[in-house]
Amino acid sequence: MVKVALDALGGDFAPDVVIEGAINAANKDADLHIVLCGPEAEVKAGLEKRGYTGHGISVVDAPDPVAMDEHPVQVLKKKPHSGLVTCVALQKKGMVDASVSAGNSGAMMASCLMLLGKTTEKFGRPPIGCVIPTAEKPIVLVDAGANVDERASVLVDFAIAGSAFAETYFGREKPKVGLVNMGEEEHKGPAVCQEAYQLLKNAPVNFIGNIEGEDLIMGKADVAVTSGFTGNVILKMIEGFYEMHHKMFGNIDSEAGRKFDEMWDYRMTGGALLLGLNGTGIIAHGRSDALAIEKAVEVAAKYARLGVAKTVNARLSEIKDEEAPAQA
Amino acid sequence: MVKVALDALGGDFAPDVVIEGAINAANKDADLHIVLCGPEAEVKAGLEKRGYTGHGISVVDAPDPVAMDEHPVQVLKKKPHSGLVTCVALQKKGMVDASVSAGNSGAMMASCLMLLGKTTEKFGRPPIGCVIPTAEKPIVLVDAGANVDERASVLVDFAIAGSAFAETYFGREKPKVGLVNMGEEEHKGPAVCQEAYQLLKNAPVNFIGNIEGEDLIMGKADVAVTSGFTGNVILKMIEGFYEMHHKMFGNIDSEAGRKFDEMWDYRMTGGALLLGLNGTGIIAHGRSDALAIEKAVEVAAKYARLGVAKTVNARLSEIKDEEAPAQA
Description:
- 2 copies of one chain form a homodimer.
- With 328 residues, the first copy, chain A, is α/β, with parallel strands linked by helices.
- Chain A has 2 domains: 1-119 and 276-305, Isopropylmalate Dehydrogenase (3-Layer(aba) Sandwich); 124-268, 3-Layer(aba) Sandwich (Isopropylmalate Dehydrogenase), CATH 3.40.718.
- Chain A is built from 13 helices and 11 strands.
- Chain A has an 11-stranded mixed beta sheet with strand order 3-2-1-4-11-10-5-6-9-7-8, sandwiched between helices.
- In chain A, helix 6 crosses helix 7 (191-201).
């Protein structure tokens, strides 16, 4: 049995779509238990209204609402009884295996970082690993937006974490790691990319060199490594492509149309994973609907079952220890 | 009569597709004259082979080939008789109105910068302005890849140049200028973006704030301002998305399908314009086919006729003078 805590008040359309998504996820997987964290009476009324009488969902009272623009650290300090913080606190106590919120993503990151903690202090800046679609297959994008102004060595950490993620989650051996850049040659791009290129040549990953925007979309790499800034632009552009395609063409009723929707609809991705933490913290899209929530819970369960976080952490710890100079 | 010089040996499939594209462009526009710069005998044979006997194309002998990876400044110094350098030199002498090359883009930039010269020394780093498709309408992306590691004030220069470009080329009054960023709020993103945001609030452009990747694709701005690095990733992703879409769906035979092809096919864009130079230098795609070359020449003629470079330069000079402190 895997247990997933879900922030009932997280996201633009909470709690309705969250409750609906939770019910759908619970009904599909008998080996999954969802703990909805939110205002108890309201959440229970929502379950009842939808006729849910199963045992796959329980409710933990967490009445404090969190605004989308509230300062992350303030949320953690002043809103311990919010759905968001409660979700993570339950995992800290060992009562659930993963925590999901579609609410204030900065607050979710801060809560996971402070409550679950980093695997190793040597891993400076935990990134967001996000599964994104390409023409070929889904790949891992890291960092999808947790950090800014990273040093080159931080990009190498991203590569190691992303590589372990892709290996565990997709089951791909020696996943191909590409550095997002503006040219193929190693001397191309900003100073930080040129430096990262040199470091990646000697890093314990299957580094295939620079990938340009087109290579990324065509699926040349299994892991696309980039700054949180560029990663966020990439992620949002992919969402924009999907939205634009649907605006222009609607639903295309063909095998290609269904395959496109399955891969490119942001809701199917189900939420991004914070890497390098002692636990499984999932950030779902702020504008999640019921389907997006259902998928986020589904993916959280899958991450927990596969032990993605554990594998990533083991890899990071190992490598960092090897790299550290021997102490007498 | 507008005159466009075209590098006959520029691009992955030169000179064949270049000659073919030139013929098609010349046949469509009686008021256009194309000067093909390349090995005279070869180019003339190519024209003859295709049965071209019109007066819309002349040939200037420029036998030196330029490799795609040759160092830009070396090309300028050691290959004055290359098609690429000759194209720009003819414009410098006032014999043509615009210069187009699908060859070594760094060498084309360097040639334009050194031979045509910057409008004003105060405009530090001329960017590439590129017309890109969105869900709504074409917009200007600036910088599409000429620079790296820009300071915030350089991004403001890009905004001014891009705004004048959009105004002149699209005929849009007060084009909306957006700063590509990873969030809407002004305190979001890397330090350079936060600083640029503050400068843009007081810049002589219609600044609408930050735009995220999705806003960009949905056409929220008329001008998307970003670093050359991010701009290049954006441009290449758009190309990748078009390529992927065709791979998945083929040609969609509907109004939407035709509109998509017309807007999103990179070949229709026709080449990017170097901004802030005394002249019209066009960088076409390295893998241009005959259609892409035809469109690049067509767009070069349009830029020259509309006086896009002149308007951009006037705007840049004006503003820079206003900004400079008064001298006693």
